[in-house]
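Example record used in the benchmark description.
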Amino acid sequence: MKWTGKKVGLALGGGGVRGFSHIGVLKVLEEECIAVDLIVGTSAGALIGGAYASGQSLREIQDKIDAYLASSEFDDSTIKSIGQTFSSENKNFFRKAQNFVMNRFWFARAFYKPSIVPSGDFQSLINYFIPDMDIRETKIPFRAVSTDLVTGRKIVLSEGSLRQAILASSSVPGAVEPVRYGELILADGGITSVVPVYAAREAGADVVIAVTVDREEPAFINIETGKDVLYRAGEITSSALQVRELESADVIIRPQVGNLHWMDFTRIGELVKIGEKAVRESLKEIHASLPLYRRLTRLGRRFIKK
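Model output (structure tokens):
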């Protein structure tokens, strides 16, 4: 029997806070002894994928998340303040009125500054989760996908500072200031590639497991202002690009994140379990996509564990 050297790649999509469900995905893949040869991430997928690829355990990553959310640094940050305006938690009339005003304040601020979130706030978040190292030094080969605002091209970062690459991949337009990278001005990878299946293929993956954390379409779409029109137009374009790219994946995992806003931190505890559930529902498809020698290796590892 001839064993081939086919590579398995994991493409982790963007989605802000919803990307924490990627932790649950990785957890079940570990439990099932399904090894991946490379990880490519967009935005939140780059943050979680990069942290894992750097050699940190999932327990370490989860502990860091819990510690960060309980820290005074997060409590005093603009990130938390903005997140509260989009929270899905029940609010009284006063709280709803306050959030209505703040929502418009943040939107207006984007017209006068490079971003809503101060660059220092987001950089400190990246530094908290990601070690100071070169991408080429990660334990698992890793790529971060970003977008050059000058040329409009997708940029796949495979060398240089891991922190800088993840920051560039996560710089949501209007929310986080773009990153200057030589002659490039880099912003969120989700502009050109929400779930980086193509980038995983380009990096050498023969089998691509894609994870998309898009929120469900609301039952009622409210379009009353110019802001609503712009936001909805962006959603439609992003969705069309994503559908096309996902056609190239071998397996698509879809954690059911509901309509959770990308900056709503109130349900992070649920997201890991949601990711776990989604993978378990896709295990049969995942195993079928793996090369034969990978299936045999997995069975051997599970036998040794027992």
